[in-house]
Amino acid sequence: MDPEIITSVLQDRKIAYFITDRDLTVVARQGTSDPFCEGQTLCLGASLLALVPELIGSEETLTAILAGELPRFELDWVNRLVDGGQIRYLAMVTLPRRDEDGEICGLLHLIQDVTAFGAIDQQLSQQRNELHLLQAQLTRQNQVLAAANAELQRLDDLKSQFIMTTAHELRTPLTTIRGYLEMLLDGDFGPVPEAQRTSLSLVGNSAARLQSIAEALIDATRIDTGHVEILLQPEDLLEIVAKVAAEFKPQIQQKQQVLAIEAPTQLPPALCDRRRMAQILGNLLGNATRYTLEGGRITVQVRALADQDAVELVVEDTGIGIAPEDQLRLFERFFRARNAKKMTSKGIGLGLYITRELVALQGGEIWVESAPGEGSAFYVRIPVAVS
Amino acid sequence: MMKRLQKKICLLGDFAVGKTSLVQRFVYNRFSDKYLSTIGVKVSRKTVVIPHADAMVEMTMMLWDLAGSQDFEGVRANYLRGTAGALLVSDLTRPETLDSLARYLKDLRTVNAEAAVVFVANKRDLVAQQQVSPAQVAQVAAEHGALYYLTSANTGTDVEEAFRSLGRLLLEH
Fold this sequence. Notes:
Chain A is 47% helix and 22% strand. Chain A is α+β, with helices and mostly antiparallel strands. In chain A, helix 4 packs antiparallel against helix 5, helix 5 packs across helix 10 and helix 6 packs parallel to helix 7. The radius of gyration of chain A is 46 Å and the shape is rod-shaped. The N and C termini of chain A lie far apart (97 Å). The mean pLDDT of chain A is 90. Helices cover 34% and strands 30% of the residues of chain B.
Protein backbone atom coordinates (compact mmCIF):
# COMPACT_ATOMS: atom_id res chain seq x y z
CA MET A 1 0.00 0.00 0.00
CA ASP A 2 1.10 3.54 -0.74
CA PRO A 3 2.94 4.84 2.38
CA GLU A 4 1.17 8.16 1.98
CA ILE A 5 -2.18 6.45 2.32
CA ILE A 6 -0.98 4.57 5.38
CA THR A 7 0.22 7.80 6.96
CA SER A 8 -3.07 9.53 6.21
CA VAL A 9 -5.07 6.68 7.72
CA LEU A 10 -2.90 6.58 10.82
CA GLN A 11 -3.16 10.31 11.35
CA ASP A 12 -6.87 10.40 10.73
CA ARG A 13 -7.53 7.51 13.11
CA LYS A 14 -5.04 8.92 15.66
CA ILE A 15 -2.95 5.80 15.58
CA ALA A 16 0.74 5.78 16.44
CA TYR A 17 2.95 2.72 16.29
CA PHE A 18 6.20 1.34 17.64
CA ILE A 19 8.24 -1.39 16.19
CA THR A 20 10.43 -3.29 18.64
CA ASP A 21 12.98 -5.99 18.03
CA ARG A 22 13.02 -9.33 19.80
CA ASP A 23 14.69 -7.66 22.80
CA LEU A 24 11.77 -5.21 23.08
CA THR A 25 13.96 -2.29 22.01
CA VAL A 26 12.25 0.40 19.93
CA VAL A 27 13.62 0.39 16.37
CA ALA A 28 10.99 2.50 14.61
CA ARG A 29 8.04 4.69 15.44
CA GLN A 30 5.50 6.82 13.73
CA GLY A 31 2.91 9.19 15.06
CA THR A 32 3.15 12.91 15.41
CA SER A 33 1.34 12.83 18.69
CA ASP A 34 1.45 9.97 21.09
CA PRO A 35 1.67 9.87 24.86
CA PHE A 36 4.73 7.65 24.98
CA CYS A 37 7.38 9.83 23.47
CA GLU A 38 6.05 13.21 24.46
CA GLY A 39 8.82 15.16 26.10
CA GLN A 40 11.39 12.66 24.91
CA THR A 41 13.60 13.71 22.05
CA LEU A 42 14.73 10.19 21.42
CA CYS A 43 12.48 7.15 21.52
CA LEU A 44 14.47 4.98 19.23
CA GLY A 45 16.67 2.61 21.16
CA ALA A 46 14.57 2.91 24.32
CA SER A 47 13.14 -0.11 26.09
CA LEU A 48 9.50 -0.74 25.30
CA LEU A 49 8.70 -1.36 28.95
CA ALA A 50 10.23 1.99 29.92
CA LEU A 51 7.96 3.79 27.45
CA VAL A 52 4.88 1.64 28.06
CA PRO A 53 4.88 0.61 31.73
CA GLU A 54 1.43 -0.85 31.15
CA LEU A 55 3.20 -3.77 29.53
CA ILE A 56 5.24 -4.57 32.64
CA GLY A 57 4.07 -7.93 33.85
CA SER A 58 3.06 -8.95 30.32
CA GLU A 59 6.55 -10.12 29.37
CA GLU A 60 5.37 -13.72 29.08
CA THR A 61 2.60 -12.66 26.76
CA LEU A 62 5.00 -10.67 24.56
CA THR A 63 7.35 -13.65 24.47
CA ALA A 64 4.45 -15.87 23.41
CA ILE A 65 3.66 -13.50 20.51
CA LEU A 66 7.32 -13.50 19.49
CA ALA A 67 7.22 -17.30 19.56
CA GLY A 68 4.14 -17.33 17.37
CA GLU A 69 2.05 -18.88 20.15
CA LEU A 70 -0.25 -15.90 20.55
CA PRO A 71 -1.62 -13.86 17.64
CA ARG A 72 -2.15 -10.58 19.49
CA PHE A 73 -2.46 -8.83 22.82
CA GLU A 74 -4.90 -6.01 23.48
CA LEU A 75 -5.31 -3.50 26.23
CA ASP A 76 -8.39 -1.34 25.89
CA TRP A 77 -9.19 1.92 27.62
CA VAL A 78 -5.77 2.54 29.11
CA ASN A 79 -5.94 5.80 31.07
CA ARG A 80 -3.09 8.26 30.71
CA LEU A 81 -3.07 11.46 32.72
CA VAL A 82 -1.90 14.40 30.65
CA ASP A 83 -1.04 17.97 31.56
CA GLY A 84 -4.00 19.80 33.03
CA GLY A 85 -5.31 16.71 34.77
CA GLN A 86 -7.20 15.47 31.73
CA ILE A 87 -7.38 11.79 31.00
CA ARG A 88 -6.44 10.45 27.61
CA TYR A 89 -7.84 7.04 26.70
CA LEU A 90 -5.74 4.71 24.59
CA ALA A 91 -6.37 1.42 22.92
CA MET A 92 -3.23 -0.74 22.54
CA VAL A 93 -2.68 -3.74 20.34
CA THR A 94 0.54 -5.76 20.04
CA LEU A 95 1.03 -7.88 16.93
CA PRO A 96 3.90 -9.97 15.62
CA ARG A 97 6.09 -8.27 13.01
CA ARG A 98 7.37 -10.49 10.25
CA ASP A 99 10.37 -10.10 7.99
CA GLU A 100 10.47 -10.73 4.24
CA ASP A 101 10.68 -14.47 4.88
CA GLY A 102 7.60 -14.40 7.04
CA GLU A 103 9.56 -15.00 10.23
CA ILE A 104 8.64 -13.09 13.37
CA CYS A 105 11.42 -10.59 13.91
CA GLY A 106 9.85 -8.28 16.41
CA LEU A 107 6.62 -6.72 17.59
CA LEU A 108 4.34 -4.06 16.15
CA HIS A 109 2.57 -1.98 18.80
CA LEU A 110 -0.42 0.08 17.71
CA ILE A 111 -1.70 2.78 20.00
CA GLN A 112 -4.91 4.55 19.14
CA ASP A 113 -6.15 7.67 20.88
CA VAL A 114 -9.82 6.93 21.68
CA THR A 115 -10.30 9.79 24.12
CA ALA A 116 -13.45 11.07 22.41
CA PHE A 117 -15.19 7.71 22.88
CA GLY A 118 -13.63 7.21 26.27
CA ALA A 119 -14.96 10.49 27.63
CA ILE A 120 -18.48 9.58 26.56
CA ASP A 121 -18.12 6.08 27.93
CA GLN A 122 -16.87 7.45 31.22
CA GLN A 123 -19.88 9.73 31.53
CA LEU A 124 -22.26 6.89 30.78
CA SER A 125 -20.52 4.64 33.25
CA GLN A 126 -20.58 7.39 35.88
CA GLN A 127 -24.29 8.03 35.45
CA ARG A 128 -25.12 4.35 35.49
CA ASN A 129 -23.08 3.72 38.62
CA GLU A 130 -24.54 6.73 40.39
CA LEU A 131 -28.01 5.48 39.51
CA HIS A 132 -27.18 2.05 40.91
CA LEU A 133 -25.90 3.64 44.10
CA LEU A 134 -29.03 5.73 44.40
CA GLN A 135 -31.24 2.70 43.86
CA ALA A 136 -29.35 0.79 46.52
CA GLN A 137 -29.71 3.73 48.88
CA LEU A 138 -33.44 3.94 48.20
CA THR A 139 -33.82 0.22 48.79
CA ARG A 140 -32.07 0.53 52.13
CA GLN A 141 -34.18 3.52 53.11
CA ASN A 142 -37.33 1.65 52.13
CA GLN A 143 -36.27 -1.24 54.31
CA VAL A 144 -35.67 1.11 57.23
CA LEU A 145 -39.06 2.73 56.65
CA ALA A 146 -40.77 -0.63 56.41
CA ALA A 147 -39.21 -1.69 59.69
CA ALA A 148 -40.24 1.60 61.30
CA ASN A 149 -43.77 1.18 59.96
CA ALA A 150 -43.97 -2.33 61.30
CA GLU A 151 -42.84 -1.11 64.72
CA LEU A 152 -45.32 1.76 64.63
CA GLN A 153 -48.08 -0.65 63.70
CA ARG A 154 -47.09 -2.90 66.59
CA LEU A 155 -47.14 0.03 69.02
CA ASP A 156 -50.46 1.19 67.61
CA ASP A 157 -51.92 -2.28 68.10
CA LEU A 158 -50.60 -2.30 71.67
CA LYS A 159 -52.16 1.07 72.30
CA SER A 160 -55.52 -0.09 70.95
CA GLN A 161 -55.37 -3.23 73.06
CA PHE A 162 -54.57 -1.16 76.14
CA ILE A 163 -57.44 1.24 75.54
CA MET A 164 -59.92 -1.58 74.88
CA THR A 165 -58.87 -3.52 77.94
CA THR A 166 -58.88 -0.47 80.20
CA ALA A 167 -62.25 0.77 78.90
CA HIS A 168 -63.80 -2.69 79.37
CA GLU A 169 -62.37 -2.90 82.88
CA LEU A 170 -63.81 0.51 83.71
CA ARG A 171 -67.20 -0.21 82.14
CA THR A 172 -67.85 -3.37 84.11
CA PRO A 173 -67.74 -1.87 87.63
CA LEU A 174 -69.53 1.24 86.40
CA THR A 175 -72.44 -0.93 85.31
CA THR A 176 -72.58 -2.32 88.84
CA ILE A 177 -72.38 1.16 90.37
CA ARG A 178 -75.19 2.47 88.20
CA GLY A 179 -77.31 -0.59 88.80
CA TYR A 180 -77.09 -0.29 92.58
CA LEU A 181 -77.60 3.46 92.46
CA GLU A 182 -80.79 2.91 90.50
CA MET A 183 -81.97 0.37 93.04
CA LEU A 184 -81.09 2.77 95.90
CA LEU A 185 -82.98 5.64 94.29
CA ASP A 186 -85.94 3.33 93.60
CA GLY A 187 -86.08 2.63 97.31
CA ASP A 188 -85.21 -1.06 96.97
CA PHE A 189 -83.09 -0.76 100.13
CA GLY A 190 -85.47 1.52 101.99
CA PRO A 191 -86.56 5.16 101.74
CA VAL A 192 -83.92 7.64 100.70
CA PRO A 193 -83.94 11.13 102.30
CA GLU A 194 -84.10 13.99 99.81
CA ALA A 195 -80.62 15.30 100.64
CA GLN A 196 -79.12 11.88 99.98
CA ARG A 197 -81.23 11.49 96.86
CA THR A 198 -79.66 14.62 95.37
CA SER A 199 -76.16 13.40 96.18
CA LEU A 200 -76.88 9.94 94.83
CA SER A 201 -78.20 11.48 91.61
CA LEU A 202 -74.95 13.43 91.23
CA VAL A 203 -72.99 10.22 91.74
CA GLY A 204 -75.21 8.52 89.19
CA ASN A 205 -74.63 11.30 86.63
CA SER A 206 -70.88 11.05 87.08
CA ALA A 207 -70.98 7.28 86.71
CA ALA A 208 -73.07 7.69 83.56
CA ARG A 209 -70.54 10.15 82.15
CA LEU A 210 -67.64 7.80 82.90
CA GLN A 211 -69.52 4.96 81.29
CA SER A 212 -70.20 7.10 78.24
CA ILE A 213 -66.49 7.92 77.96
CA ALA A 214 -65.60 4.22 78.27
CA GLU A 215 -68.15 3.37 75.55
CA ALA A 216 -66.76 6.09 73.29
CA LEU A 217 -63.20 4.81 73.77
CA ILE A 218 -64.30 1.28 72.95
CA ASP A 219 -66.18 2.44 69.86
CA ALA A 220 -63.31 4.61 68.62
CA THR A 221 -60.82 1.78 69.10
CA ARG A 222 -63.07 -0.67 67.27
CA ILE A 223 -63.33 1.80 64.39
CA ASP A 224 -59.54 2.32 64.31
CA THR A 225 -58.85 -1.40 64.24
CA GLY A 226 -61.62 -2.16 61.72
CA HIS A 227 -63.64 -4.26 64.16
CA VAL A 228 -66.98 -2.48 63.91
CA GLU A 229 -69.79 -4.74 62.77
CA ILE A 230 -72.30 -3.02 60.53
CA LEU A 231 -75.54 -4.73 59.56
CA LEU A 232 -77.04 -2.92 56.58
CA GLN A 233 -80.75 -3.49 56.17
CA PRO A 234 -83.71 -1.47 54.92
CA GLU A 235 -84.78 0.56 57.96
CA ASP A 236 -87.51 3.10 58.61
CA LEU A 237 -85.66 6.27 59.56
CA LEU A 238 -88.88 7.82 60.91
CA GLU A 239 -89.11 5.07 63.53
CA ILE A 240 -85.50 5.57 64.57
CA VAL A 241 -86.00 9.34 64.85
CA ALA A 242 -89.11 8.91 66.97
CA LYS A 243 -87.42 6.45 69.32
CA VAL A 244 -84.30 8.54 69.88
CA ALA A 245 -86.30 11.76 70.25
CA ALA A 246 -88.34 10.09 73.00
CA GLU A 247 -85.13 9.13 74.84
CA PHE A 248 -83.97 12.75 74.83
CA LYS A 249 -87.28 14.19 75.94
CA PRO A 250 -86.35 14.45 79.65
CA GLN A 251 -83.06 16.19 78.86
CA ILE A 252 -84.72 18.65 76.51
CA GLN A 253 -87.52 19.38 78.98
CA GLN A 254 -85.00 19.96 81.75
CA LYS A 255 -83.45 22.78 79.69
CA GLN A 256 -86.88 24.02 78.60
CA GLN A 257 -85.84 23.56 74.99
CA VAL A 258 -88.20 22.79 72.12
CA LEU A 259 -87.68 19.73 69.92
CA ALA A 260 -89.52 19.80 66.59
CA ILE A 261 -89.57 16.92 64.12
CA GLU A 262 -90.32 17.72 60.48
CA ALA A 263 -90.81 14.59 58.42
CA PRO A 264 -93.05 13.32 55.66
CA THR A 265 -95.62 10.66 56.47
CA GLN A 266 -93.84 8.21 54.25
CA LEU A 267 -90.19 7.78 53.52
CA PRO A 268 -88.33 5.21 51.42
CA PRO A 269 -86.38 2.80 53.63
CA ALA A 270 -82.78 3.75 54.30
CA LEU A 271 -80.08 1.14 53.89
CA CYS A 272 -78.42 1.35 57.30
CA ASP A 273 -77.62 -0.34 60.59
CA ARG A 274 -80.50 0.45 62.91
CA ARG A 275 -78.47 0.48 66.14
CA ARG A 276 -75.69 2.60 64.68
CA MET A 277 -78.13 5.02 63.07
CA ALA A 278 -79.75 5.52 66.46
CA GLN A 279 -76.28 6.10 67.91
CA ILE A 280 -75.55 8.72 65.22
CA LEU A 281 -78.81 10.56 65.85
CA GLY A 282 -78.22 10.26 69.60
CA ASN A 283 -74.79 11.89 69.29
CA LEU A 284 -76.14 14.74 67.18
CA LEU A 285 -79.15 15.33 69.40
CA GLY A 286 -76.95 15.13 72.50
CA ASN A 287 -74.65 17.84 71.10
CA ALA A 288 -77.59 19.97 69.98
CA THR A 289 -79.17 20.00 73.42
CA ARG A 290 -75.81 20.42 75.18
CA TYR A 291 -74.72 23.45 73.13
CA THR A 292 -78.09 25.18 72.95
CA LEU A 293 -79.01 27.51 75.76
CA GLU A 294 -82.12 27.15 77.85
CA GLY A 295 -85.25 27.88 75.90
CA GLY A 296 -83.56 27.21 72.59
CA ARG A 297 -84.96 25.24 69.65
CA ILE A 298 -83.81 21.96 68.11
CA THR A 299 -85.29 20.69 64.84
CA VAL A 300 -84.89 17.25 63.32
CA GLN A 301 -85.78 17.14 59.62
CA VAL A 302 -86.03 13.98 57.57
CA ARG A 303 -86.54 13.98 53.82
CA ALA A 304 -86.08 11.86 50.74
CA LEU A 305 -83.79 13.08 47.95
CA ALA A 306 -85.35 11.43 44.94
CA ASP A 307 -82.71 12.56 42.46
CA GLN A 308 -79.94 11.06 44.55
CA ASP A 309 -81.54 7.87 45.86
CA ALA A 310 -80.83 8.95 49.41
CA VAL A 311 -82.56 10.07 52.56
CA GLU A 312 -81.32 13.09 54.43
CA LEU A 313 -81.44 13.74 58.15
CA VAL A 314 -80.79 17.25 59.48
CA VAL A 315 -80.33 18.12 63.14
CA GLU A 316 -80.50 21.88 63.49
CA ASP A 317 -80.20 23.98 66.64
CA THR A 318 -80.24 27.61 67.74
CA GLY A 319 -77.15 27.04 69.86
CA ILE A 320 -73.76 28.69 70.21
CA GLY A 321 -72.57 27.77 66.70
CA ILE A 322 -69.11 26.78 65.58
CA ALA A 323 -66.30 29.02 64.34
CA PRO A 324 -65.25 28.36 60.70
CA GLU A 325 -61.69 27.35 61.66
CA ASP A 326 -63.09 24.82 64.16
CA GLN A 327 -65.47 23.37 61.56
CA LEU A 328 -62.44 22.17 59.57
CA ARG A 329 -61.37 19.93 62.46
CA LEU A 330 -64.73 19.15 63.98
CA PHE A 331 -64.77 15.47 63.06
CA GLU A 332 -61.19 14.77 64.23
CA ARG A 333 -60.48 12.56 67.20
CA PHE A 334 -60.23 14.37 70.55
CA PHE A 335 -61.01 17.75 68.97
CA ARG A 336 -63.35 20.09 70.84
CA ALA A 337 -64.34 23.51 69.52
CA ARG A 338 -63.19 26.40 71.67
CA ASN A 339 -66.63 27.69 72.54
CA ALA A 340 -67.74 24.14 73.37
CA LYS A 341 -64.91 23.84 75.90
CA LYS A 342 -65.91 27.14 77.46
CA MET A 343 -69.50 26.05 77.72
CA THR A 344 -69.00 22.67 79.36
CA SER A 345 -66.12 20.55 80.57
CA LYS A 346 -67.87 17.35 79.58
CA GLY A 347 -66.73 15.17 76.69
CA ILE A 348 -63.37 14.07 75.37
CA GLY A 349 -63.97 14.95 71.72
CA LEU A 350 -64.74 11.49 70.30
CA GLY A 351 -68.46 11.81 69.61
CA LEU A 352 -68.34 13.47 66.17
CA TYR A 353 -65.35 11.36 65.10
CA ILE A 354 -67.32 8.20 65.87
CA THR A 355 -70.42 9.67 64.22
CA ARG A 356 -68.54 10.45 61.00
CA GLU A 357 -66.95 6.99 60.85
CA LEU A 358 -70.27 5.25 61.46
CA VAL A 359 -71.91 7.32 58.70
CA ALA A 360 -69.07 6.46 56.31
CA LEU A 361 -69.26 2.74 57.17
CA GLN A 362 -72.90 2.85 56.06
CA GLY A 363 -72.00 4.49 52.75
CA GLY A 364 -73.25 7.90 53.81
CA GLU A 365 -71.99 11.46 54.17
CA ILE A 366 -72.06 13.99 57.00
CA TRP A 367 -71.30 17.68 57.06
CA VAL A 368 -72.07 20.81 59.07
CA GLU A 369 -73.23 24.33 58.38
CA SER A 370 -72.78 26.75 61.23
CA ALA A 371 -71.84 30.24 62.34
CA PRO A 372 -70.90 31.46 65.82
CA GLY A 373 -73.96 32.68 67.69
CA GLU A 374 -76.30 31.45 64.97
CA GLY A 375 -76.58 27.77 65.70
CA SER A 376 -75.55 24.69 63.73
CA ALA A 377 -77.11 22.24 61.29
CA PHE A 378 -75.66 18.74 60.89
CA TYR A 379 -76.60 16.93 57.68
CA VAL A 380 -76.49 13.17 57.32
CA ARG A 381 -77.19 11.54 53.98
CA ILE A 382 -77.77 7.79 53.76
CA PRO A 383 -78.46 5.67 50.64
CA VAL A 384 -81.95 4.42 50.07
CA ALA A 385 -82.45 0.65 50.17
CA VAL A 386 -82.97 -0.53 46.62
CA SER A 387 -85.57 -3.25 46.39
CA MET B 1 23.33 -4.23 47.13
CA MET B 2 19.56 -3.96 47.47
CA LYS B 3 17.51 -6.37 45.41
CA ARG B 4 15.12 -4.68 43.00
CA LEU B 5 11.85 -6.13 41.80
CA GLN B 6 8.92 -5.01 39.70
CA LYS B 7 5.54 -6.55 40.41
CA LYS B 8 2.18 -6.08 38.77
CA ILE B 9 -0.60 -5.65 41.32
CA CYS B 10 -4.26 -5.34 40.41
CA LEU B 11 -7.03 -3.75 42.44
CA LEU B 12 -10.27 -5.62 41.92
CA GLY B 13 -13.76 -4.94 43.21
CA ASP B 14 -17.17 -3.49 42.39
CA PHE B 15 -17.62 0.09 41.23
CA ALA B 16 -17.36 2.87 43.82
CA VAL B 17 -15.72 0.74 46.52
CA GLY B 18 -12.70 3.07 46.55
CA LYS B 19 -10.04 1.36 44.41
CA THR B 20 -8.93 4.62 42.80
CA SER B 21 -9.00 6.39 46.16
CA LEU B 22 -6.80 3.71 47.72
CA VAL B 23 -4.24 4.15 44.93
CA GLN B 24 -4.38 7.94 45.25
CA ARG B 25 -3.82 7.67 48.98
CA PHE B 26 -0.99 5.13 48.69
CA VAL B 27 0.85 6.71 45.76
CA TYR B 28 0.15 10.43 46.17
CA ASN B 29 -1.09 10.67 49.76
CA ARG B 30 -4.22 12.51 48.69
CA PHE B 31 -7.97 11.95 48.77
CA SER B 32 -11.01 13.40 47.05
CA ASP B 33 -14.55 12.47 48.04
CA LYS B 34 -15.81 13.24 44.54
CA TYR B 35 -16.77 10.00 42.79
CA LEU B 36 -15.33 9.60 39.29
CA SER B 37 -16.07 6.31 37.62
CA THR B 38 -13.00 4.57 36.17
CA ILE B 39 -13.27 3.00 32.75
CA GLY B 40 -10.62 0.59 31.54
CA VAL B 41 -7.48 0.69 33.61
CA LYS B 42 -5.24 3.28 35.27
CA VAL B 43 -1.67 2.22 35.94
CA SER B 44 0.32 3.93 38.68
CA ARG B 45 3.71 3.16 40.10
CA LYS B 46 5.07 3.22 43.65
CA THR B 47 8.37 1.97 44.96
CA VAL B 48 8.57 0.66 48.51
CA VAL B 49 11.34 -0.95 50.50
CA ILE B 50 10.31 -4.14 52.24
CA PRO B 51 12.39 -6.13 54.70
CA HIS B 52 12.78 -9.73 53.62
CA ALA B 53 14.92 -12.42 55.27
CA ASP B 54 18.00 -10.49 56.36
CA ALA B 55 17.87 -7.93 53.61
CA MET B 56 15.82 -5.09 52.24
CA VAL B 57 14.11 -5.39 48.89
CA GLU B 58 13.14 -2.45 46.72
CA MET B 59 9.83 -3.34 45.13
CA THR B 60 8.29 -1.24 42.40
CA MET B 61 4.58 -1.90 42.48
CA MET B 62 2.82 -1.39 39.16
CA LEU B 63 -0.67 -0.73 40.45
CA TRP B 64 -3.47 -1.57 38.03
CA ASP B 65 -6.65 0.20 39.06
CA LEU B 66 -9.31 -1.69 37.10
CA ALA B 67 -12.83 -0.50 36.36
CA GLY B 68 -15.38 -2.14 38.60
CA SER B 69 -18.30 -1.85 36.21
CA GLN B 70 -19.67 -5.00 34.63
CA ASP B 71 -19.07 -3.53 31.15
CA PHE B 72 -15.40 -4.36 31.45
CA GLU B 73 -15.72 -8.00 32.45
CA GLY B 74 -14.82 -9.11 28.95
CA VAL B 75 -11.54 -7.23 28.82
CA ARG B 76 -10.58 -7.94 32.41
CA ALA B 77 -8.79 -11.18 31.49
CA ASN B 78 -6.25 -9.21 29.42
CA TYR B 79 -5.76 -6.73 32.23
CA LEU B 80 -5.10 -9.59 34.65
CA ARG B 81 -2.33 -11.20 32.59
CA GLY B 82 0.96 -11.14 34.42
CA THR B 83 -0.59 -10.18 37.76
CA ALA B 84 1.59 -11.19 40.68
CA GLY B 85 -0.85 -10.13 43.35
CA ALA B 86 -4.16 -8.40 43.96
CA LEU B 87 -6.04 -6.32 46.47
CA LEU B 88 -9.68 -7.42 46.52
CA VAL B 89 -11.59 -4.34 47.60
CA SER B 90 -15.06 -4.12 49.13
CA ASP B 91 -17.06 -1.31 50.70
CA LEU B 92 -18.10 -1.58 54.34
CA THR B 93 -21.28 0.41 53.59
CA ARG B 94 -22.46 -1.94 50.80
CA PRO B 95 -22.77 -5.65 51.72
CA GLU B 96 -23.15 -6.80 48.12
CA THR B 97 -19.59 -5.65 47.35
CA LEU B 98 -18.22 -8.20 49.82
CA ASP B 99 -20.24 -10.94 48.14
CA SER B 100 -18.72 -9.96 44.77
CA LEU B 101 -15.13 -10.61 45.82
CA ALA B 102 -15.40 -14.35 45.24
CA ARG B 103 -16.16 -13.68 41.58
CA TYR B 104 -13.14 -11.41 41.13
CA LEU B 105 -10.93 -13.93 42.87
CA LYS B 106 -12.16 -16.62 40.50
CA ASP B 107 -11.32 -14.44 37.48
CA LEU B 108 -7.86 -13.83 38.92
CA ARG B 109 -7.20 -17.50 39.65
CA THR B 110 -8.17 -18.38 36.08
CA VAL B 111 -5.27 -16.24 34.85
CA ASN B 112 -2.85 -16.88 37.71
CA ALA B 113 -3.64 -19.64 40.18
CA GLU B 114 -0.72 -18.60 42.42
CA ALA B 115 -1.35 -14.86 42.67
CA ALA B 116 -1.11 -13.47 46.20
CA VAL B 117 -4.26 -11.74 47.49
CA VAL B 118 -5.17 -9.44 50.35
CA PHE B 119 -8.78 -8.54 51.13
CA VAL B 120 -9.51 -4.88 51.81
CA ALA B 121 -12.77 -3.58 53.28
CA ASN B 122 -12.75 0.17 52.65
CA LYS B 123 -14.59 3.23 53.99
CA ARG B 124 -13.95 2.37 57.58
CA ASP B 125 -14.41 6.04 58.49
CA LEU B 126 -18.12 5.95 57.52
CA VAL B 127 -19.15 4.43 60.83
CA ALA B 128 -22.80 5.53 60.76
CA GLN B 129 -23.35 3.98 57.33
CA GLN B 130 -21.57 0.71 58.00
CA GLN B 131 -23.58 -2.31 56.87
CA VAL B 132 -20.82 -4.93 57.03
CA SER B 133 -19.19 -5.98 60.29
CA PRO B 134 -15.47 -6.67 60.71
CA ALA B 135 -16.43 -10.24 61.63
CA GLN B 136 -18.12 -10.71 58.27
CA VAL B 137 -15.04 -9.47 56.43
CA ALA B 138 -12.85 -11.74 58.55
CA GLN B 139 -15.03 -14.72 57.73
CA VAL B 140 -14.92 -14.14 53.96
CA ALA B 141 -11.16 -13.60 54.04
CA ALA B 142 -10.67 -16.74 56.11
CA GLU B 143 -12.75 -18.77 53.63
CA HIS B 144 -10.17 -17.88 51.00
CA GLY B 145 -7.17 -18.15 53.28
CA ALA B 146 -6.36 -14.46 52.88
CA LEU B 147 -5.32 -11.60 55.14
CA TYR B 148 -7.68 -8.66 55.41
CA TYR B 149 -7.55 -5.00 56.33
CA LEU B 150 -10.24 -2.50 57.24
CA THR B 151 -9.09 0.65 55.51
CA SER B 152 -10.05 4.23 54.95
CA ALA B 153 -8.67 5.95 51.87
CA ASN B 154 -10.11 9.14 53.38
CA THR B 155 -8.11 9.04 56.61
CA GLY B 156 -5.35 6.75 55.35
CA THR B 157 -6.02 4.12 58.00
CA ASP B 158 -4.26 0.84 57.16
CA VAL B 159 -3.84 1.73 53.47
CA GLU B 160 -0.07 1.54 53.51
CA GLU B 161 -0.26 -1.60 55.66
CA ALA B 162 -2.54 -3.36 53.15
CA PHE B 163 -0.22 -2.69 50.21
CA ARG B 164 2.93 -3.56 52.17
CA SER B 165 1.32 -6.74 53.40
CA LEU B 166 0.70 -7.75 49.81
CA GLY B 167 4.29 -6.82 48.99
CA ARG B 168 5.54 -9.16 51.76
CA LEU B 169 3.37 -11.97 50.40
CA LEU B 170 4.81 -11.43 46.94
CA LEU B 171 8.32 -11.82 48.33
CA GLU B 172 7.34 -15.10 49.99
CA HIS B 173 5.88 -16.53 46.79
